[in-house]
Amino acid sequence: MSEYTIRRNERTGTIISPFHDIPLFANESKTVLNFIVEIPRWTNAKMEISKDEPFNPIKQDIKKGKLRYVRNCFPHHGYIWNYGAFPQTWEDPTQTHTETKAKGDNDPLDVCEIGEQVGYTGQVKQVKVLGIMALLDEGEAKNKKYATEIIHETHEAWRRIINGHIPCKTEKYDLSIYNLTNDASSGKITPDNPIYQAIRQDEILKPAPIDPSIDKWFFISGTSNM
Question: Alpha-carbon distance 48 to 85, whole Å?
Fold first, then answer.
């Protein structure tokens, strides 16, 4: 099981919530947004923001008791883009989208960043929106205007949670809303709060061995029906 987590502001060293404390907009008037890198390009460890832990660290996802890795599609290794999320967004699992007819996945809004720079886990990059891809809509690319609407919808859903307009824990989801910066939030605490103080401090551990099969290449047959 992975003990590696990221939740510090790299400038100040302060523990923050990448979910709640990093603003969505870097420059709203110029439509520049902050993007959190969870999985850097060419890596395949499935890192993601933990929604239920205090201050929402970025850590490796676990499925059926095993650390998750994505398969490597030849000739690449891991993701072919920087993969991550927009902070201060939330896909509400109780709401059904009018076009996809699917409910939200209870996560911050996913982002594929296609700039030339390879990121690193926990990095905050400033980006502009080009479009949106609905995975349940046969990969159909949507335009920039539609993408912006989705971003604002998920930001408003996050605001409802963080400001206590809807509960942060139900039968469908369990979110930690502890943060340092949102004045209207019941989850705002200060660094002297026992919850903040109880967060495990940095500790350098010896890396665990990784199964060589994680680097295996997979191939798509030319006769595959895609």
Answer: 9
Of 107 and 98, which is predicted with more confidence? 107
Let me know: does 162 contact 67? Beta carbons within 8 Å: no
Distance, CA of 15 to CA of 199 (rounded, Å): 9
Q: How far apart are CA 23 and CA 19, in angstroms?
A: 9
Give the CA dihedral 111, 112, 113, 118, nearest 10 degrees: 120
Q: What pLDDT score does 24 carry?
A: 98
- Evaluate whether 58 touches 122 at the Cβ level (below 8 Å): yes
pTM, entire model: 0.89
Task: Name residues whose C-beta falls within 8 Å of residue 118's C-beta, 6 or more positions apart in sequence.
Answer: 40, 41, 42, 82
Q: Classify 161 as helix, strand or coil.
A: helix
> Quick check: 119 pLDDT over 50?
yes
